[in-house]
């Protein structure tokens, strides 16, 4: 019969081995699923209206809405994993989005939170914005796959259950395949607010999914809540791409490169994403980043 001391020695080691085995299995499963998805999406990745290897879709189920993007990135997997596989770089990514006014990484024991302030697409004081606390959750991490996620229980008005999820695999030495998803739930108050917005300032807003074509063959795009989530999913994805593109520049030039690249990328889709002029965006973001850095110093 094993002694109590022997059990105390063996049991933690057994748990550690089980955890390692589970993580390895999760990595293998995730990598296999992503490889399969890459194969399935070859047609969409190589022939689309985005002028880049990208596939976007969205869905709405009751009070839940979600947008997904699958894309080929022209960056090595190790670089993508280092930039996106931990919470350390995410505030630099999220601040590129028009509606992100502030972001700070907070550590409280084992809990890691990205505290965001979100608001209008123009400059405004922080006390006029909404706070969203994204709790960072680690995922799988291996030589050929990584994943991570961020969750927020509450958002503006009565929106809730915000979820940002990301996973990636290498394609070759210079390219990676990325899956990014953005989702949230909404209640009656936010539904009514969106309806009022779509009847006024947002009446011409559309998403990217084509629901039909008119008699002249021109695309008719998705509207409403799915259009909103598609636009924001694309904005966040372009922020990821802009952040990665900036890594090639000297450290002191990276912010300006990211800002310029994000704005230029969004202007490729003016029907969906144009909001402000280039000078307005650059000036606003420089001020917001400076405010963010000052608060964190």
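-> sequence recovered:
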């Amino acid at each position: 019969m094993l002694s109590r001391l022997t059990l105390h020695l063996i049991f933690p080691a057994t748990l550690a081995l089980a955890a390692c085995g589970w993580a390895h299995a999760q990595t293998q499963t995730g990598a296999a699923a992503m490889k399969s998805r890459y194969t399935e999406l070859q047609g969409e990745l190589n022939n689309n209206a985005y002028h880049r290897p990208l596939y976007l879709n969205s869905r709405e189920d009751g009070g839940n809405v979600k947008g997904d993007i699958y894309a080929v990135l022209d960056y090595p997997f190790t670089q993508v994993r280092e930039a996106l596989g931990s919470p350390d770089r995410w505030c630099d990514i999220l601040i590129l989005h028009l509606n992100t006014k502030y972001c700070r990484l907070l550590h409280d024991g084992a809990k890691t939170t990205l505290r965001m302030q979100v608001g209008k697409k123009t400059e405004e004081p922080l006390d006029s914005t909404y706070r969203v606390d994204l709790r960072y959750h680690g995922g799988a991490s291996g030589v050929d796959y990584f994943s991570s996620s961020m969750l927020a229980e509450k958002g503006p008005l009565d929106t809730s259950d915000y979820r940002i999820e990301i996973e990636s695999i290498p394609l070759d030495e210079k390219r990676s395949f990325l899956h990014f998803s953005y989702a949230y739930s909404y209640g009656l108050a936010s539904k009514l607010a969106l309806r009022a917005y779509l009847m006024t300032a947002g009446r011409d807003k559309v998403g990217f999914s084509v629901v039909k074509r008119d008699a002249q063959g021109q695309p008719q795009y998705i509207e409403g809540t799915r259009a909103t989530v598609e636009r924001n999913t694309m904005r966040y994805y372009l922020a990821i791409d802009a952040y990665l593109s900036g890594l090639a520049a000297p450290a002191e030039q990276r912010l300006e490169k990211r800002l310029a690249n994000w704005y230029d990328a969004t202007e490729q889709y003016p029907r969906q994403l144009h909001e402000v002029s280039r000078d307005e965006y650059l000036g606003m973001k420089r001020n917001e980043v400076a405010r963010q850095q000052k608060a964190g110093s």
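Strands lie at 54-61, 64-73, 100-108, 111-118, 130-141, 146-154, 160-170, 176-185, 210-213, 219-221.
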